[in-house]
Amino acid sequence: MRVPQVDLRSGTAPDAAPPPRHGPVLDVQHLSKTFPGTRALDDVSLEIAPGEVHALMGQNGSGKSTLIKLLAGYHSADPGAHAEMDGVPFEVGRSVPDGLRFVHQDLGLILELSAQDNLALHGGFARGRGGRVLWRQQEAETRRVLAAFDVDLDIHRPLAAATPVQRTVVAIAAALQGWDGGGVLVLDEPTAVLPHEEVERLFEVVAEVRRRGTSVLYVSHRMDEIFSLADRVTVLRGGRRVGTYDVGSLDSRSLASRMVGDDIDPDFRATVVEQVDQPVTIEARGIHGKWLRGVDLEARAGEILGIAGLAGAGALELPYVLAGKAGELARGEIRLPTVSPDWYDVQRAADLDIPIVPADRQTEAVVAEFTVGENISLSALRRLGSRGRLSAKDEATLVRSWSRRLGVVSTGPSAPISTLSGGNQQKVILARCLAVSPRVLVLCEPTAGVDIGTRVSIYQIIADLAADGLTVVVASSDEGDLLALCTRILVLRGGVVAEELEAEGLTKNVLIRAIEGAEQ
Ligand SMILES: Nc1ncnc2c1ncn2[C@@H]1O[C@H](COP(=O)(O)OP(=O)(O)OP(=O)(O)O)[C@@H](O)[C@H]1O
């Protein structure tokens, strides 16, 4: 079955919500959660109407994940909460009603296993006499479950070979298995790691879920998604509910302001001027890789160079090649002319010490067992102290100064990094990169999972660093990042630079059309 195409950019809702039955399907009142030293949620109430897509938004650290984890029974709630699912009371944090299903950000899949095995792990294997697995029946069931979502996937291949959106669809299908409508599906930032063009496909799946009469609680930082998809939005700020609104009654500026508690411009653009008189600080030539087919680039001190492209165009591979972190397929040469005139084979690019903020903070950058301070100073340990001895004082000074400059919100340098919100973890990784005082910094998806307020502050920090002479190369699948930051944007198609755009006066539409290779 094919559901109607949803246009992410036009802002049209996928389908009118089915008329609500009486009363909310999920009704949670007076929910609070206190961690040592932090009141993460403070007397929050949430009512989800039958068949609606209900967005949950708020800045990093506003309590969204805590709310989801309470509903999922991962944390226990403070006393005083009352909750009902379909009118039946349940104790939040202690029991999870069957009608409440979750797809967490990490999707909870085993990538070495096939879609069929993953679905069976969630829903159980079809078994015959003596516990024998009925493989034919299992396969038919897998096909039936996935058919509803119109996903074209080899159900026997390991999910490692599937695209991000195919995996997300498998995770949604797994969560909804054995369930024929009603209830609430919780999607926690399902698009955080999805390439742009796959987001629309996910929207079709959400429309299908809703068509079954299932409500969706949708957590996202991307405002355009909320306007395309959601009927209502609940905004949290500092652990409290600011309000619940009909999406149609808001625009992006008023929604952003409710999240931040201050007037905020969601279309903020940093004022970075092109530095034509400055020296070239990075040059690369003949770059090839898994996707790249011969890219040349150069950038000057104080310049922010954007890299754009659809998945498979090589845009998100290029930063890794420049930082010497691409695989053995990477070919080409790179040099930092203000450091040395010598060209380096990109296989040796790691020797140039160009720091990178990678695309997936959790798996590629954050050291989960370390504190905030340790995560920052990790890159600079060689410089801290003398004669092989680490100076705790120097380390503390470095950590304090970068935490302050980037506005990292935590209980202090010794806080475990896992207790920080996503946006603050991102600032820590940025601080780690800057702690080595680089001339060139490479950013990949710099604001993934980062809220609008923090996003604007990250843009400003990067713009200030560029004004001090830092060269920044930034690849992002979010056009907002490129428009807010860059002086110039290289648009990659098929692994080569297809267009070079001056950022001044560039509109989102023109950029998207260039990325897609459409006629302007
Ligand atoms: N296990 C924990 N121990 C201590 N504090 C925590 C813990 N988990 C979360 N917190 C704190 O609770 C507050 C709310 O965090 P939460 O992760 O719910 O925010 P969020 O809105 O989901 O943020 P993000 O958008 O970055 O994911 C933050 O101040 C966070 O540091």
From TrEMBL:
SMART domains attached to this UniProt entry: AAA (SM00382)
The keyword Membrane is annotated on this UniProt entry: yes
Matches recorded under Pfam families: ABC_tran (PF00005)
ABC transporter domain: residues covered: 26-263, 273-519
InterPro entries found in the cross-reference section: AAA+_ATPase, ABC_carbohydrate_import_ATPase, ABC_transporter-like_ATP-bd, ABC_transporter-like_CS, P-loop_NTPase
Protein name: Sugar ABC transporter ATP-binding protein
Keyword RNA-binding set for record: no
Species assigned in the record: Nocardioides astragali
Membrane-spanning segments: none
Gene Ontology molecular functions: ATP binding
PANTHER family cross-referenced by the UniProt entry: CARBOHYDRATE TRANSPORT ATP-BINDING PROTEIN MG119-RELATED, D-ALLOSE IMPORT ATP-BINDING PROTEIN ALSA-RELATED
Region span, Disordered: 1-23
Keyword set, alphabetical order: ATP-binding, Cell membrane, Membrane, Nucleotide-binding, Repeat, Sugar transport, Translocase, Transport
Lineage: Bacteria, Bacillati, Actinomycetota, Actinomycetes, Propionibacteriales
Superkingdom: Bacteria
SUPFAM superfamilies, per the entry: P-loop containing nucleoside triphosphate hydrolases
